[in-house]
Amino acid sequence: MKIAVCVKHVPTSENVQIDENNNLVRDTAESDTNPCDLNAMEFALQLKQQTEGTIDVYSMGPDIALASLKKCLAIGADQTYLISGRKFAGGDTLGTARVLAKAIEDNGPYDVIFTGNESSDGGTGQVGPMIAEILSMPDVSETVSIEAKDDKTLEIRKNVGDGNLVLKVKTPVLVTVPFGCNEPTLPTLRTQRKANRAEIPVIDESMVDLDENLIGKPGALSIVTTVSSASAGRTAEELVGSFEEIAARMDELVEEGRA
Amino acid sequence: MEKKKIAIIGGGIAGAALGFNLSLYDDADITLYEKNRIGCGTTAKSAGTVCLFDDSLKNRYWDVRLYGFETYLKMEKEKPGSAGFDKTGTLVCATDEEVEKTIKAGIALAKSAGYTGEYITDKARIKEILPSLNVDSILGAGYTQDDGYFDGTMISNTFAEKMEANGACIKRGVEVVKINTEGGVAKSVETSEGEKVDFDVIVDCTGPWSRFTGELVGLDVPIWHTKAEAFFLVPPEKKLDYVFPVLKFPAFYALRAGDNVFICKSHLSMNLDDPMHAGQWDPDKLPQVGGTDDYFIDFLFDQMEENVPGLADSGLASSWLSYRAEPRDFLPILGETPVENYFLCTGFGGNGVIEAPAATRDMAKLIMRGESTMLLEEWAFSRLIEEA
Question: Does residue B309 belong to the interface with chain A, where contact is any CB pair within 8 Å?
Fold first, then answer.
């Protein structure tokens, strides 16, 4: 099977900068691979093994995203592509999905496309299903296991809250994968060193034949107007003293509606 | 009784140990300023190995090593877990005859202090202790079961607890933003909370931040940052089914971390003139995890293939980067400076956990009684000025 995986390189720190257009400054943020994308990668590796397939990985973002692509190479991807260009910047989920879908279409056709359920920064969960829609293929979300039954059929277990649905799905299909549903393979010293030396092709804006008005900032249907930090609204207080003092303080907290 | 007012800047292992040692003098009035949490900076990223014999600190300073080791053993005995001791033993590999000589001298010193130690040339026996090792690449190995590694953050917090019990004050989450001097004499500090406090003595224990702290009094503190790049490896079998001892090679060291192996390039193998190894950076910009360089993977893989092939195919679970504070001779800077009443207790490089107890014991005596020691004389700021 020919498999594609989309991964996103995301900030991992709370200390992120926002530019004047309310966009995240990604070049300098502490960052790593979006966690559930590694779960998606793990299912891709399982399918690759079952079907003697190949895996291509796509990541859209600045050069810093090369770290995620190198990690995927070290884990077992066959080829990776960085999709990067100024005209892609400032886009919303639809613009991102259009660019990813076009790059995947140009290098395809693929039997299976994997994405994580959602990114840990944006958290919309929209890009995967949008790619499926653009490429006119079905998508299966909340995948918890996947197995190739033959060259054209997958058996997918999909979590539906209290249980799993077992689906027989014909390829091509897009599969979105939640965090924690499997144990991602780790790169090793040996494979990471080899991956660090790999030349990763860049797909730039001249190589993606899309109307400029449909991508990047001009193509965005949603605009972030303000960004503010959210407080969890929780405070912890250690209660110390005698049993009586602690009990009295607990009474006060209950009175104040804080316990 | 009039008390000497002392400000300690920095609550890593050096600052906390100094605070504790000063608090043993009844005429010391101590305030420690830590801009974050106790033991959370470079100390938290330290491997914490205090081995009875290896090349991390020359045998010339054996007493410093022994004092540090025994301080932590007593801490553990007083309150189990307070120093985070993991008694794994240590295997120090002799890669050439010079290293072999150092190990053998270290073993003699350890035995002299009543500890066990042996130099093993029986390759099968070495392999029994550490099955992952390539015994063909070494002449032999020194081994003791008596030591292991400690936890720098736990130690710092234990020292902090003890100094507070002795009446010292710790200002957590408070940064010293200004140091006022008059006529070349350090007089007071101003804090991020807007306080201005007069002190008789101000001590910089900020390690990798010392260049910035020194600038507050116009002092050029001659330390460089060397990169301490560390990986947590998941062994190919996913689990260590034997006691992985602290493993020391001249170029790297490793120790167990749960079922994983922590591995780091040794500080003495860093070249201060190599911009990949050393420079002047801002420790506040260090990421919590990651940040390691590709060259480090190359280095580590070559070392593993040559020396510990059983780990060459380990999974890379995580990594981190920290900055060690290193003067040119890789020894700390202790004591007085050209700025009167401004003292340094910094530059411990990769040896803070080993050296802090003895260094701060002597620093406390100097500050409180004006009495120097041989150690303070050897590690004085003036040696670096003379060199320059």
Answer: no
Give CATH for domain B97-145+224-325: 3.30.9.10
The answer to whether B292 faces chain A, any CB pair under 8 Å, is: no
Residue A210 lies in a domain: yes
Domain for residue A259, yes or no? no
**Looking at the predicted structure, is the pLDDT value of residue B174 above 60?**
yes
DSSP string, B242-291: S---EEE-SSEEEEEETTEEEEEE-GGG--TT-TTTEE---GGG--SSB-
Residue B28 pairs in a beta bridge with B4
- In this structure, what DSSP letter does residue B86 have? B
> What's the CATH number of domain B4-43+153-223+329-387, 2.20.25.90, 3.50.50.60, 3.40.50.300, 3.40.720.10?
3.50.50.60
Q: Please, is B105 exposed, middle or buried when counting C-beta atoms within 10 Å of its C-beta (0-12, 13-18, 19+)?
A: middle
Please give the pLDDT value at position A20.
67
Q: Does A64 touch chain B (CB under 8 A)?
A: no
The residue of chain B with its CA nearest to that of A70 is: B294
Closest CA–CA distance from residue A26 to any residue of chain B (Å): 14
Best to test chain B binding among A188, A190, A194 (most B CBs inside 10 Å): A188
Extract the tokens encoding A107. Answer: 């290098």
Assembly ipTM: 0.78
Question: Domain limits at A178?
Answer: 2-214
CATH of the domain at A31: 3.40.50.620
- The model's confidence at residue A88, banded by pLDDT at 50, 70 and 90, is confident
